[in-house]
Amino acid sequence: MSGTGGERCRALLAGPADAARPFLQGGMSHGDLHRLAARLHAHFQARRGEHKGLCLASEDRALCAAAILAALAGGPTLLLPYALSLPALSSLHEAAGCRLALAEAGRPLPAGMEPLALDSLPASAPPLPQNPAQGSILGLFTGGSTGSPRIWSKTAENLLGEGFFIAAHYGIGAGDRILATVPVCHIYGLLYGVVLPLVSGASVCAHTPVFPEEMAKTVEETAATVFISVPAHYHALAASDKRLAPCALRLAFSSAGMLDERDALAFAQANRLGIIEVFGSTETGGLATRNRFRGEREFTMLPGLDWQAGADERLMVRSAFLSPELPRDEAGWFHTADRIQPTSGPQFRMLGRADMVVKVGGQRVDMDAVKRLLLAQAGVQDAFVAALPESGSRENRIVAAVAGTASPEALRQALARRLEPYALPRLIRVLGALPMRANGKYDREAMLALFAER
């Protein structure tokens, strides 16, 4: 950990500047949060080696923040599932062997995973040690639709360092009130809705509104100054013509997929506030931003990050926020799967993805993995999977064509047992053979025509 990052983490472990300031609006204070973190840390210190990490299966932002503090102090390594559904938690349990979960009462957990009972924690505990953990404190499980589960590590410098950067870059502090419409189980929701208030001293709304009326009402009731949302929710706001009530709102962020320009401009016109679009990924952290309300059509790389375009047009980056497992070349560059065209200064234009990972409803879907699952089914000789834009939006829908004798319904049922709903092909066409070009490659245009006007 860098010297500055280490100092900030030690100061964070030492306790809040104002212990009485609320962390949850109308709920737990920053001081209460630190005391809960100390109890969690003491509990796990007394049981070292008993558990392979602690699964964050809770929507309670304060609980998750306390767990992060405990992990920073050398407590349990945390594991964040990609969803709180039983299939997602089961996949995490199978992949990581995690047997303990921080979960609300009544949440279904897979066999072999037990909830951590908060009443089993010591009633009081010594303050957290001010010696930040050097290794991974959080594992991000992204196995939802890939068929090949993967856990990306985040060190304190990765996770908390990015939180400190966001707070300093945008001037977010103790006077801010954050409202997030993104669940904690999404890294974007965890970073902006848990880590950011934790490191900045701000407060965060305990509620996670998702409907336009809910969002507008909660912004007004909490006098939110920072709004954290995703493209799907901004689209819903635009479609409902719902204006956020006049308030102290001064910052709005969007990530987890590309924001439709029309939705961005509709929000800006209704609220006189531009949306800061954050470009990045689970593994890389935030890389670049743009604000269309300011006339920015291209992305601008965040300060402090090294970047360049490779010979294959792929974006190459060097950043303190990169997960340790990411491969680097001899010069330390990580080659992303995003194709870019540098324009002027720190700006670049997005050209698309070089791989087959797309976002559907803000969630990652690996189309190659969907194809592998199709090919594993009886009566399937070949398969083609694609992402098509939804009419009137920038969202994607997955479609598939297969060669064989299997029925579309049987294939849907088989895939539903392995994939999250957002990763399921919306349409499946069964053919005698897939259209091919003379050079032996798939005739993509012919196959996409199979789904036109359907």
UniProtKB/TrEMBL annotation:
Keyword tags: Membrane, Transmembrane, Transmembrane helix
GO biological process: fatty acid metabolic process
Pfam name, any one: AMP-binding
Domain AMP-dependent synthetase/ligase: 33-290
Any one GO molecular-function label of the UniProt entry: medium-chain fatty acid-CoA ligase activity
Gene3D superfamilies: 3.30.300.30, N-terminal domain of ligase-like
InterPro entries: AMP-bd_C, AMP-bd_C_sf, AMP-dep_synth/lig_dom, ANL_N_sf
Full protein name: AMP-dependent synthetase/ligase domain-containing protein
Family to which this protein belongs: Belongs to the ATP-dependent AMP-binding enzyme family.
Membrane-spanning residues: 62-84
UniProt cross-references to PANTHER family, sorted A to Z: ACYL-COA SYNTHETASE, ACYL-COA SYNTHETASE FAMILY MEMBER 3
Chain ranges of the AMP-binding enzyme C-terminal domain: 374-441
Signal peptide: none
